[in-house]
Design goal:
Two copies of one chain form a homodimer. The first copy, chain A, has three helices and six strands. Chain A has helices spanning about 10-20, 30-40, 45-55; strands at about 60-65, 70-75, 80-85, 90-95, 105, 110-120. Chain A has a four-stranded mixed beta sheet, with no helix packed on it. In chain A, strand 3 and strand 4 (about 90-95) form a beta hairpin. Mean pLDDT of chain A is about 80; it is low at about 100-105. At the A-B interface, helix 2, strand 1, strand 2, strand 3 and strand 4 of A face helix 2, helix 3, strand 1, strand 2 and strand 3 of B. Chain A binds a DNA duplex (30 and 30 nucleotides) through helix 3.
Chain lengths: ~130, ~130
DNA sequence: TCTGAGTTTATATCTAGTCTAAACAGGCAT
DNA sequence: ATGCCTGTTTAGACTAGATATAAACTCAGA
């Protein structure tokens, strides 16, 4: 998974990678730290974050939901959001501009209540 | 905006609501607190959060991005995510299950680089 | 005026994540 | 083998975002 990315393999990093590869439930950094500490007690928090940020930078893993502060939107009609990678501005996207995601109220076993499309890229100013 | 929701109007709440209504850029709680404090110095952080949570519960505003911990996903192929409202589990949704969002590499003035669909509802166990 | 429900405030606390400095480990030249 | 250099790990301090608690305040209604 990692060869060729210039990463020096260490037991801690191997444990983090193996845990991620075996996981199916999108663990948080905390989950990962707990799991790795069962095999390598005393693996420190910064090591976990260092490794995760590095794997992310190499494109080997993705962040599913960005953390950071919650943002509030007074527009409660259905619409989507565009986030600029550079300046972080968030702009509303009217739904008709997007080829609507359309599916029933069920998705396999799941009862769908709402969905949100987050589009990422560069805004006009940042291009 | 608020009449009929059983909310008692106070200057702080009015300022928060008016600021939100005039905003187009999805402010954070911090942004809101700073803005309200220009009109009502010493409006405390808990008051801002109380009011926001209350407006959210009344459906008058939406949270655009959930805060909380970042989650990591070793699956780097394009796919979407389902989040259960009750148990918070996150499951991968293969893209072919969703009527794909399709649009060009431009959306008006914006350069689109990626997009992510987050579907919310109840998972099988929680229904 | 008094009372009490609801609101605001200050403060403490919690969680997620980053920064810094010191200790440590391994590879390479001498 | 010894010493140096680079990169890694660790502990601990720190920051930001958010919540909990308890005391003080406000104001409508008796």
């Amino acid at each position: 998974m990692v060869d060729g990315y210039g990463l020096k393999m260490t037991p801690q990093r191997r444990a983090i990678i193996e845990f991620l590869q075996s996981s199916v439930d999108h663990p948080t950094a905390e989950d990962i730290m707990n799991a790795v500490n069962e095999r390598f007690p005393m693996t420190s928090r910064p090591t976990v974050y260092n490794t995760l940020n590095w794997l992310k930078g190499s494109g080997l893993i993705n962040e599913v939901f960005e953390g950071g502060a919650v943002r509030y939107d007074p527009n409660t009609s259905p619409h989507h959001h565009f986030v600029c990678r550079r300046c972080r501005v968030v702009q509303d996207i009217e739904p008709e501009l997007v080829d609507a995601v359309s599916f029933g109220t069920r998705l396999g076993d799941k009862k769908v209540e709402s969905f949100q499309v987050t589009i990422r890229g560069l805004c006009q100013k940042c291009q």
